[in-house]
Amino acid sequence: MLEAQKPAKLILEDGSVYYGTSFGYPQSVAGEIVFNTGMTGYPESLSDPSYYGQILVLTFPLIGNYGMPPSDSPGDLFKWYEAPRGMISALVVDDYSHDYSHWQAQISLAQWLYNQKIPAISGVDTRSLTKRIREKGVMLAKLIIGDEADIDFFDPNRENLVAKVSIEKPVLMGTGKKRVVVVDCGCKHSIFDELQQRDVEILRVPWNYPVEEEKADGVLISSGPGDPAVCTETIEHTQKLLSKGTPTFGICLGHQIMALAIGAKTYKMKYGHRSQNQPVVDRQTGKAYITSQNHGYAVDETTIDKDWKPFFTNINDQTSEGLIHTSGRFLSTQFHPEASPGPTDTRFLFDRFVELIK
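RESULT FIELD:
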């Protein structure tokens, strides 16, 4: 049951302080603060494993007005959420709407956050906060609720966040004539949904699974949180996988893992891409797409092997949005072709991957 709202303050690593009111779970927390510019889709964002360890700022001012969809039936999770639980460390909004209205809504956002033990603060000038993050880059932050004692800053990227959001043992999902092994680095449920719609059997395996030893028609390396360079075991297994020639598709963190596996380098971006309106261009066709993205690291294209080519490029800042091998058997995207939330322009990439394995 929700407790009475309490005063709260958000403290940034640079000494900035933002005051507001708590409306989630009444517990102080620390993490890395990032912002998302999407206007809708907060149920998917709050449950995206790529946000694990992060304090999320939503730039759209009015949040909570359509509540939260059902979450008590595992069979329905594909429809509403990207993971069975909330993944963010805390939520920061400008104006929280206590009253909500939507035909699919089951509970309020505040109640959902409380049930998930996720603290939140409203009444923050998120425009000012976002401008500060854009100017100075993502930084550490902490949210102090009420009169609770101060806590230390915490950098989640020093830990292997992928190991915290991956599964512990392999799981077989669905049926189909071809088998796709999904290396779960914090995979969104909508990725599984896209694959199952294409009549394939899915073997979901942990992040450090020896995937090169598994019988597979194709392998998908999923999205996930944190610094890709920390996932040394995944990188090593991916190197062996690519040497076998098994068709492989990397999404977001999976794109970065594949790049590291071929000897390329990655770097941390100033404030990353977290939105539903990132424009990318297909380097092969010249066609542009609007994409959904959620990442704080990127691949340095100047370090890729000669047998690999840029697949997509971000039109705004020219960063790498995908790689493709000259054989066509290995491809990757930095953006999310499954969207959720966001545009569905690039779902055809799942068709392309399935065609490879057939």
